[in-house]
Amino acid sequence: MCGICGFAGQGGLDDLKRMTEAMVHRGPDAEGLWHDLEKGVYLGHRRLSILDLEGGAQPMWTEDGVLGVVFNGEIYNHLELRAELVQAGHRFLTDHADTEVLLHGYHQWGADLPRRLNGMWAFAIYDRDRREIFCSRDRFGKKPLYYSRQNGTFAFASELSALIRHPHIQARTNPKALKKYFAYGYIPAPSCVYQDIFKLPGGHNLLLQLPALDFQAQRYWQFVLEPFEEIPAHPEEAWGEEIRALLAAAVKRRLMADVPLGVFLSGGIDSSSVAAFAVAAGAAGRVKSFSIGFEEPSFDESAYARRAATLLDTEHSWEILSMERSRELLPTIIGKLDEPMGDSSLLPTYLLCRKTRQHVTVALGGDGGDELFAGYDPFRALRLAQLYEKLIPRPIHAAIRLAAARLPTSHANLSLDFKIKRALRGLSYPRFLWNSIWLGPLEPRELDELFGEPTDIEEVYEEAIQSWESCRQDDLVDKTLQFYVNLYLQDDILVKADRASMMNSLEVRSPYLDIDLVNFVRRIPSAYKLRRGQTKYLLKKCLEPVLPRDILYRAKKGFGVPIGQWLRDGYLTFGPSSANGCLNPRFIGERLAAHRQGLSDQRAFLWNAWLLSAWGDKGQKQHAVV
Fold first, then answer.
1. 358 burial class (0-12, 13-18, 19+ CB within 10 angstroms)?
2. Residue 226 gets which letter from DSSP?
3. pTM value surpassing 0.90
4. Residues catalogued as catalytic
5. Is residue 548 part of a domain?
6. What's the rounded Cα separation, in Å, for the pair 273 and 375?
7. Do the beta carbons of residue 526 and residue 476 sit within 8 Å?
8. 3-state DSSP helix/strand/coil percent for the chain, to nearest 5?
9. Domain of 531: which CATH number?
């Protein structure tokens, strides 16, 4: 795993060096710099050595010096592709570096290369003959890639903090992106917190023409649900057997490494299944597993993790996240966070990665299981939501919400009052906004108050609307699945995993997002993912030969943090901030007072507002945790 950067146009080698130095945490093992002063092309790389420790240095070039690449990620089918390319006449210089497969693969297949890859990646290939730079990001956007064209320069980097080190790339706050941040709790691609800077979305390529600096981004893959037309006689058995085989193969592929490797283990279905298949694959030595617990009982699932570790006979390590520990960690995390994201589970994920990195360099996790198999609570609410929408006239919605608001506020993890209030909030809006508003910090009318202007729903929620309308199935579960995979997974879950892991120089791999497994699961009808209120129905059934029922069928906790209690008790303080200067301070103050007095639960909005403030003024004492 690595950090990449580069630019074409204005600038010099010192600028490139500053960009790479901003990503030392992504690649502490080596630095690579290359430039062509005459043509104004610069490529930079920071390396975290995982494969071919001796021969994988970057930027890497073909033997004739025509193609050069900087690459962040892992290609799990690189050995198969290498064999195919050798048979086609290509001569490799490295022993088993997956980076070199990209060079020869691009020479052989051009822009079709990403479609052949099974892995996670962000890379840039410079073709010196064609005067082009070809960039690509993996299907789900597991590895980040930011880019911008400003002031006669096109620049790209794995992180914003590196990109804006270039003197010609200006960082000016993007008000539209801030609205999206408070609508979703994250900023979906291609938008960025800064104007004129963009994220290349997952499943996209970008081709830059030199020296004109003209570029075009183009989609090469999209997650689409296409259910099987024919159902086998015994679908649970037939499909379950296929899922087990695909998941086992995906885990085995991700055990490929020349450095120590382990697994995250929460004791839930996804991580426990990954650990089980890692053990079954005969990983070298006893499998190492890692988890995080909480002092607050409603958030803690460390006992389940230890139960799974005992069952699977892994070498298990864990750590308890206390308030004191959080106070120590938050300034460090925010200081390294290049773009604000409001998922509070970034905190325990960071601690988990930090603990894991003390023992291994690579970890396998369970990301993607909930999104692919309908594992979240909102899926269970869909049927009741339909009945509510059908039976309750819209003019009465406001009165019901007002009555629900009188329910006593609990700051426990996924408390009943929290679920009821969240559900009713979403149901006040059209269906295509349900998921965004159920998950987001604010609803549209609150955005109006916070920003002091009307909210353009089609602009702020354009990503959610596009995801909803592009679903080929007229089915609420499928439309919700598509939202979770295309937005929540890519722009929240995977961003959190990448930032938390790379802050600690740890590589995280996601077997559930193996393209072979995904292409099978996306064809399974939704009725086998959500069955009579049972989330992950088919996945649980197919894992019954692998895991005990008390792991498969226990209540889901998630990876939450007791931020409601922290905000109520004054552990997080608010002050004036350059980052939220366009926000209404009275709105923030009223919400904070209502939360601390127990009148309403404002944890989601207040956490996002606090984090934005602290992110904007990171390093300043008045915005640290007190």
1. exposed
2. -
3. yes
4. 2
5. yes
6. 15
7. no
8. 45, 15, 40
9. 3.40.50.620
